[in-house]
Structure formats: C-alpha cells, structure tokens
Amino acid sequence: PPTLGTYTNNVVGHVGTTQITSTASTTGAPAAATVTVTDITPTELSVAASSHTVTYGAEGATTFTVQVAPGVPDGETVTVTVGSGPGAATCTATLVGSIGTCTIANTALPVGGPYPITAVYPGDASFAGAAASDPAGLTVIKDTTTTTVTASPASVPFGGEAATTFTVHVT
C-alpha cells in the first residue's frame, strides 16, 4: 500500500489533434485527478517549386516556397526534400509570417526525374505536424555544350597538312 504523502503523475499524450494532460495527487485521501484536454490546431502546409525543370549544375536556381497555417510562430522550420533515399537533397525553410523559402545545392541531383518534392513541418505544442508535396516534382536536364574547333594555321598548302594543329574547346 502507498504511504502518506503527495504524489504527482503527469501524463501527456495526443489523440489526433487533441492533447491530453493528466495530473493526480494524493495526501492520504482518495486520489483527486484533473484531466486537461487541449486542442492542437491542425496545420495546413503547402510546398511549391519556382521551376519544375532545371539544368544540371543550376539546381540552386530553383526556390522552394513553403506556407503553413497562419499563426505558426516565426522562426519555426520546414524541411524540404527533393528525391528519395540516400541521394535526396534537402533544405530548411525558416518561417516568417507563415512563409519560408530555401534552395538545394547545385549538382545535388543527377540528371533525371521527376524527383518527388516533399515538405515536412514537425509541429509544436500548439500546431500539429504536417506534410505536403508538389506533385509536379523536379526534373534535372543535361546542360548544353558548345564545341568549337580551330585550325592553326587556318590554311596550308597541299601536302603540308601534318603541320596543322587543331584545337577543340568544349564549353
């Protein structure tokens, strides 16, 4: 049997978007319990890419914009992931006025796609976590190249072709 004294037990849990907190204490009398039920605001989240096609090496030119429900405090973050698995690229958007932006590193993804774009807001004590995706994804295309060939000298007499130097530049 329990001894006389004061015992406090705090239990915090979530059921959907409802937070449940329970506190019970006893001082030798039957236990009194208080249960507090607090609604956590459901969070709406969206993510959009400024472009859905990007040239390899210029992936950082695409800006990912996230928006959460009004009221989420400034400074909270949303993680944006482009791709999946170990080769995925991520960036973190810091919210200001419920909106944040971020970019991934150049050459972060190989040519291919479309790569899935997802955003995750982890939630806090007042707002539930949420996830969203941009259904168009991001496609990385090959960079274009230009090839130039120059001959030096530009003209040679018949039979003197072996003295010509050709220079190839690929940019």
Could you explain how this protein is built, in words?
The protein has 171 residues and is mainly beta. 0% of the residues lie in helices and 50% in strands. The protein has no helices and 13 strands. The chain has strands at 9-15, 18-25, 32-39, 45-49, 53-55, 64-68, 77-82, 89-94, 99-102, 112-121, 130-141, 147-152, 165-170. Strand 7 and strand 8 (89-94) form a beta hairpin. It is rod-shaped, with a radius of gyration of 30 Å.
> What's the pLDDT, averaged over the residues?
83
Largest sheet descriptor:
5 strands, mixed
Strand order of the largest sheet: 5-11-10-7-8
Strand and helix order: EEEEEEEEEEEEE
Identify the overall geometry: rod-shaped
Secondary structure category: mainly beta
Report strand %: over 45%
Could you tell me the number of beta strands?
A: 13
* Amino-to-carboxy terminus distance: 83 Å
**Which residue ranges are poorly predicted, with pLDDT under 50 across at least 5 consecutive positions?**
none
What is the compact description of this entry?
With 171 residues, the protein is an all-beta fold. It has no helices and 13 strands.
Topology:
Layout: E1 9-15, E2 18-25, E3 32-39, E4 45-49, E5 53-55, E6 64-68, E7 77-82, E8 89-94, E9 99-102, E10 112-121, E11 130-141, E12 147-152, E13 165-170
Parallel strand pairs: 5-11
Antiparallel strand pairs: 1-2, 2-3, 4-6, 6-9, 7-8, 7-10, 10-11, 12-13
